[in-house]
Design brief:
By secondary structure, the protein is α/β, with parallel strands linked by helices. It has a single domain, classed as TIM Barrel. Helix content is 30%, strand content 20%. It is built from twelve helices and 21 strands. The chain has helices at 78-87, 106-119, 142-149, 164-175, 201-206, 214-230, 242-254, 264-268, 290-302, 317-320, 337-346, 353-368, and strands at residues 2-3, 13-20, 26-32, 35-37, 47-50, 55-58, 60-65, 90-95, 123-126, 153-154, 180-183, 197-198, 210-211, 233-236, 258-262, 307-308, 385-388, 393-395, 414-416, 419-424, 427-431. It is globular and about 65 Å long. The N and C termini lie close together (4 Å). The model has no long low-confidence stretch (mean pLDDT 98). Bound molecules: N-carbamoyl-L-aspartate and zinc ion (2 copies). One zinc ion binds at residues 157-158, 184, 237-238, 284. One of its GO terms (biological process) is purine nucleobase catabolic process. Substrate binds at residues 66-68, 98, 284, 315, 329-330. Its EC number is 3.5.2.3. Catalyzes the reversible cyclization of carbamoyl aspartate to dihydroorotate.
Length: 432
């Protein structure tokens, strides 16, 4: 099993025979350098791979990962985080801005892109901050970041932009280049920095500060009005709660330009995992009861939730080995994202492979403005591929990872082990 940085390889030539495409048809797929070629034009001695029983998805795109570089390279780096991405089938990721320093200037966005060009195993898009230092007081260099780094998406993720007027001004600035604001929806008065458990019977019993679903849905409802007012695009990070889904449905019905993502952990895990106060399961927004998990699955299936975003959030051991209220929130997710989608949505018959390609490649690529990602697996298209064995399974081992961190909420769980091969713009970035 190998993971390779893009800069350390040349585009490959590879013929994958008899593979199943997302629409259910069978075809040969020919990786001819950076594009897919016509299989009948492949040379007789080309390297071959038997694709029977395998699914050829487009390379997956993750709109929400934390790579921790610069500032917390002990927890993750661009190299290790994108290696985990390649192993998870991803060919592009958006790196959130809550690094140290925060990605709030054009210079810092370009520095991240330069590091990625040297070390990354997939395409890395720097997300720009909405406000300077994520402090929620003054706007960051929105338009300069867009101009310098091609960034379309801006977010204070980790923090909520609570100031309505500042949010309005940010919408107005990104509207000019058709950019999008991605909100970490957490009203800081309803769910403050200590909030760490879904507000309900369990938070009361454990004595943990509650995180009401209204803290999420109220912010999204406000932002919908600002998106409608300004005509700008709006994206909801890591939706966790049923009332928020109602707000998103109503906004879409009104024609507001809104998209939303769900994480794999909110699609599988429930709040009762907090009963033993294991900080691995501490995350923002918190794990919710089963009725919210079910509502989220239905929303991904019907398209109310447009895409999957892992919110891959690696943390060093000492930041998790603390009292529950003091521990850092977040969990890794890149290497198990497709596995969780298969078990929660594909196997139960709620999403077909074309749906997976849409929620995990086409939709996030459109959000980020990536024209060469999330495209069909077809001759003439960019050679981005995630080759999937839908039957393989294993017990998840948190130490068997490309990530530098081990805060894996699926430890010991029986899950699919689907990714056989990842190809990014013709480069074989992962092969098992
Ligand atoms: N999700 C989390 O609990 N933590 C994220 C920040 C975030 O996505 O809000 C992190 O950066 O660790
Ligand atoms: Zn967040
Ligand atoms: Zn995040």
């Amino acid at each position: 099993m190998t993971v390779t940085a893009l800069s350390a390889s040349v585009p490959a030539q590879l013929l994958i025979t008899g593979v199943t495409l997302p629409d259910g048809s069978t075809a040969d797929v020919y990786v001819d350098g950076p594009v897919f070629g016509d299989p009948s034009s492949a040379p007789a001695d080309v390297a071959r791979l038997d694709g029977s029983g395998l699914i050829a998805l487009p390379g997956l795109v993750d709109p929400h990962v934390h790579l921790r570089e610069p500032g917390r390279e002990d927890a993750e780096t661009i190299r290790t985080g994108t290696a985990a991405a390649a192993r998870g089938g991803f060919t592009a990721v958006q790196a959130m801005a809550n690094t140290s320093p925060v990605t709030d200037t054009a210079e810092l966005a370009c520095a991240m892109a330069a590091t990625a060009a040297e070390h990354a195993a997939c395409v890395v898009i720097p997300c720009g901050a909405i406000t300077q230092r994520l402090a929620g007081e003054h706007l960051a260099e929105l338009e300069p970041i867009h101009r310098a780094a091609g960034t379309m998406c801006f977010s204070d993720d980790g923090k909520c932009v609570a100031d309505s007027q500042l949010m309005r001004e940010a919408f107005e600035e990104v509207r000019a280049f058709d950019g999008v604001l991605a909100q970490h929806a957490q009203d800081p008065r309803l769910a403050g920095p200590d909030a760490c458990c879904h507000e309900g019977e369990l938070s009361a019993r454990l004595g943990l500060p509650g995180w009401t679903t209204a803290a999420e849905s109220a912010i999204v409802a406000r932002d919908v009005e600002l998106a409608a007012l300004t005509g700008a695009r709006y994206h909801v990070c890591h939706v966790s709660a049923q009332p928020t889904l109602d707000v998103i449905r109503a906004a879409k019905a009104r024609g507001v330009r809104i998209t939303a993502e769900a994480t794999p952990h909110h699609l599988l895990l429930t709040t009762d995992l907090l009963a033993d106060l294991d900080t691995t399961f501490k995350v923002n927004p918190p794990l919710r009861p089963a009725e919210h998990v079910e509502a989220l699955r239905a929303a991904v299936a019907d398209g109310t939730v447009d895409m999957i975003g892992t919110d891959h959030a690696p943390h060093a051991p000492q930041d998790k080995a603390k009292a529950f209220v003091a521990a850092s929130p977040g969990m890794v997710g890149l290497e198990q994202s497709l596995a969780v989608v298969i078990d929660t949505l594909v196997r139960p018959g709620r999403l077909d492979w074309a749906g997976v390609a849409d929620r995990m490649a086409h939709s996030p690529a459109a959000l980020l403005g990536l024209t060469d990602q999330g495209r069909p697996v077809a001759p003439g298209e960019p050679a981005n591929l995630c080759l999937v064995d839908p039957e393989a399974r294993h017990a998840v081992d948190p130490t068997d990872t490309e990530s530098r961190s081990r805060n894996n909420p699926y430890a010991g769980r029986d899950l699919p082990d689907p990714v056989r091969l990842t190809v990014c713009l013709g480069h074989v970035t992962y092969r098992r």
